[in-house]
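Predict the 3D structure for this chain.
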Amino acid sequence: MLWLLVHDDDIALLGGGGVGREVYRLYLRWYGVLAHGTFPAHDKLWQYPPGAGPLLLSPALLPSLTYFQAFVVLTLVADVLILLALTRAGRRPGRSPHGAWYWTAGLPLLIHVPLARYDVQVTAFAVISLLTLSRSPRACGAFAALGALVKVWPGLVLLGMPKGRTTRYAWTSATITAVVSLGLLATVFSNPFSFLRQQGGRGVQIESFGGTMLSLATRAGWKGRVRYQYGAMEFVGHYVKYVAALSLFLTAVAFGLLLLWRVRARHWTEATPFDAALTAVLLFTVTSRVISPQYLVWLLGLAAVCLTSRHTSQRPVAWLLLAAAAVSGLDYPVLYAEVIHCTWTGVAVMVGRNGLLAAAAILSFVRLWRSARPAIIPLPAPSAAHPLPQRELSTP
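Done. Predicted structure below.
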């Protein structure tokens, strides 16, 4: 992966390069603004919570390297932390080493994209949060909150906490950590909530489910087009706003289903919090207006956590996510030009990738639902020697 990143611009097969451009152009530009104690309030590309600021400033910890080099080194460090956490968890009694192997084999399917985005660092927060749950629910909540301050989705890992004391400790710790951290960030930086203004203007990215629908529509004669805006290639034209509204509606439906599962769940195992985290992030991913290739980093990390437990219900889902990651490597960067221009090749790649994600999301929720509902054990049939006890009927 590192070799491919270094030679990104030299290999035509990788789509003409540009994967690392986000770091040495966009992130570096934001670094210059953040270093002056303010968030990029007037930059439409800044759409991240305030916790992303310290993370993008972190390459300053390695002053002897360029910003790009330091960023990649810190990404590799986060990768190692995830691997060590999965390995340690897999060595506990009754656990499995499959999670560490899964992460090691799965991440390179995304080629070198993970090294040029900060999603590995965010995934580290979520992975460590889940793996600390058995020892300290408070630490679990704190790590989830810190991850959510960087990219929101790690907050979803708290959805599957066992009911009762564990949930209270984890959620209370997460709330306190979030409030204190936001207070500190608001003290150090100005305009910490400017990202909210940019989120409302997001359209339908070409790699989302809505984008796949619109790509198919272009093949049928729809006159929409693709334009670079808000840091992504998005569709513009008639009906785009309706597709975006449908995505938001489906996200609300997904949230409702997850709440219904939590209310009705009766059976928890050590793997239930892991499984619920993967299901929640999967559902929010497939209903999002944006599904960038690096989102697969989150899903691979959470699937790896599930596989550290022998009781997980998500094993088939993990295999589907491996296949989706492999197709995402074709989507970006290899065939990205085809995807942008909505050729039949590009449309086929997106239908394949998003079809796998849809199948994984549905299967994940179904298996989570079934695993949390204890099986009904039938009573033995009565016999003449051992009849069932009879209740005496009373009349008014």
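Confidence is low (pLDDT under 50) at residues 388-396.
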